[in-house]
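ping. complex inputs:
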Amino acid sequence: MSDSEWITELINDTDTTMSEKQRKILEAAIDTFSEKGYAGSSTSEIAKKAGVAEGTIFRHYKTKKDLLLSIVTPTIARFAAPFFIKTFTKEVFENEYEHYEDFLRVIAKNRLEFVRKHFPILKIFIQEIAFHDELREPFQQLFTEHVYQKFKKIIEHFQEKGEIIDLPPETIMRMSASSIIGYILPRFLLFPEKEWDDDKEIDQLVEFILYGLSGKR
Amino acid sequence: MSDSEWITELINDTDTTMSEKQRKILEAAIDTFSEKGYAGSSTSEIAKKAGVAEGTIFRHYKTKKDLLLSIVTPTIARFAAPFFIKTFTKEVFENEYEHYEDFLRVIAKNRLEFVRKHFPILKIFIQEIAFHDELREPFQQLFTEHVYQKFKKIIEHFQEKGEIIDLPPETIMRMSASSIIGYILPRFLLFPEKEWDDDKEIDQLVEFILYGLSGKR
Amino acid sequence: MSDSEWITELINDTDTTMSEKQRKILEAAIDTFSEKGYAGSSTSEIAKKAGVAEGTIFRHYKTKKDLLLSIVTPTIARFAAPFFIKTFTKEVFENEYEHYEDFLRVIAKNRLEFVRKHFPILKIFIQEIAFHDELREPFQQLFTEHVYQKFKKIIEHFQEKGEIIDLPPETIMRMSASSIIGYILPRFLLFPEKEWDDDKEIDQLVEFILYGLSGKR
Amino acid sequence: MSDSEWITELINDTDTTMSEKQRKILEAAIDTFSEKGYAGSSTSEIAKKAGVAEGTIFRHYKTKKDLLLSIVTPTIARFAAPFFIKTFTKEVFENEYEHYEDFLRVIAKNRLEFVRKHFPILKIFIQEIAFHDELREPFQQLFTEHVYQKFKKIIEHFQEKGEIIDLPPETIMRMSASSIIGYILPRFLLFPEKEWDDDKEIDQLVEFILYGLSGKR
DNA sequence: TATGAATGAGCATTCATTCAT
DNA sequence: AATGAATGAATGCTCATTCAT
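pong. complex structure:
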């Protein structure tokens, strides 16, 4: 399976062939891994929560790590999907987003939406990426080859237009991303129960980034 | 032991009473927890790495979790130390930092220095805080009662002076902090082997935050 | 089913009613048991090797042990077949073999041939007879009631003719058999890849036994 | 540890450093492996029989296979010990044994004695050698480099003296050995409860081999 | 104080067998 | 007849913790 096929397959979320039991197992595993971490979760606990025999887990997933990857891999691929490079012509960016602000706002909103829907899985990913080469390596590659490259082109495009300051693209990227992530983490991880006005917050966030990065000083 | 005694004790780095073996155990545990996570590390592995018998660990630390807390707690307390409220009068802030920029730069530089020295322990903290009430609760308290309160006063002080925009202090705080953390994490966690010019990067960072938060728009 | 019916059925190699799948299962099981031993083989491995579903094995053989017996029993019965007593009159022996040498040579040659054809199954038998009463008991009976009795009569016959020394028949039997087996085991089990000149070796073997057992000393 | 050191260590049966529990574990393991085979024995069963916790087994023997090797290896080495080549001069053989008969009788008697003492372990060896490379390889080497070489020299020595027939030494060896083994196996494995007059049987055995191999025909 | 043998609950995984389809 | 999902007991092994020395 080639790289792009793999991506295509991951993004089209066609888990249509999953049995009832399999779905229950995945749900229980997401729950448990998310709450206690991978190493802190036992397959027997997951089986009990899923209402299946322990052996059933291993009929569907060869190992516990296999179960982890089956949970995390497709979701992360889909999280990164918007950054996939499909075309390299400048026109596309110009058509896609007239201003850096547009790009930022769109990304912030739809990735926030994605996080809202899939936070437990993303949390597992964040927790476990440090400990599993099988997780780190493919996503490091995915990031450097797709996300980073596309993001960079977008930044350079708007730097040429004079919209954003002339710092190294990865610095711009880091500042933009960390601001957004710096909203997402408290929002979902630390104080999820607080009432958040996402739209207003994102507006402030975008404005903060834009002024911070504006060339006019 | 009252709350403040506890804090005092933690900050004064009184590791003077530690035996050679104890120090070796701590070192080995930091190494191991940092590399494999708490649940993924075994006490026997730590004992072997420390060159002591398995039982020796439990002579010094009642349980494995005790060992974790002994590692993480004092370092985190010291990480937060600069934000401790010792005085509540406005004069102090004015003397301490003339501009928000000064405050930001000082904090960024010395907390970065602290991270450089203690990154493995901080990494353990970040990884494990989600899974252990014994970690989360005291530091949530420490944060809301000290760090947050002091940070808020500082922000309000500079908002009154018109230096920074009139958003809710916690929004300001989040934006400031996440920008700095957004530098620290790639810097130490993702690409530690890259060559970083910390001084230049921090200057850019501070500038980014200041412009982003400046009231003049 | 009476004892003699059982024997008759086993000897007539009526595997005619076996389906394709059943044959594949038997083949795979022989392969696997022979290579890893009964307890070291799993039914799932056998199923995979046979290209059938796990359940299919249990449709044909109630249990794993049933499968073992189905493999081993008929082949061992046929291995012992030449020793079955069909008649008890002396004349038969005299007609069958003029000298002990003839008997020895014929037995050695055709049992060697049999071993060549069925070695994997015989190996399973040798390995497993120690652990399964269901194997040991019928074949102990078969041996003491048929093989031993007929062998004994033959030996006594040639002792009367003065061809072989006057030791207890079972001693003669043991010496004859162990010499032959002592060729077969290295030949097939230890060094099967060596080049063996079976005819010459058997000639030497028969001579060795004959001289060893000859009464003229 | 060099080859010869290894041998020396194995032969000197210095299990002096074994704790009570360790001894109990070995005994129970020998019992169980001997009765049910390696694959058919469970560590929990062995632990129960030894009166220790299951974990205790694994403190002394890293794996179940380690336990097997710890049982079998030293005993087999000691079984082969009499065949170790210590000297290569002809004089030694002449002093050691005046006739092939002497050699045969001594070997038969003392190896029989050894088997009597260690039969359960030897049985385990015989059963398991087919399935474990870790067993087969070192003993194949030990056999071809020591036992076979010394045996061959002895045979050639007596062939030169005209005592035994001029067949290939390995044929002589096979016939001698299989005759002896052909006594040992029924003696201990098949009918251990029968009353055996070992001395008389060995005399007959030696005579059988000698006449069988005698050159005078 | 330090040891390391001993524990037994718990772990991920495999097993032979069943049964609805 | 054949499947393969499902089972849950059993497996080899690891774990944090205890305790006699």
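Residues 42-44, 54-55, 57-58, 62-64 of chain A lie near DNA strand E (CB under 10 Å from a C1').
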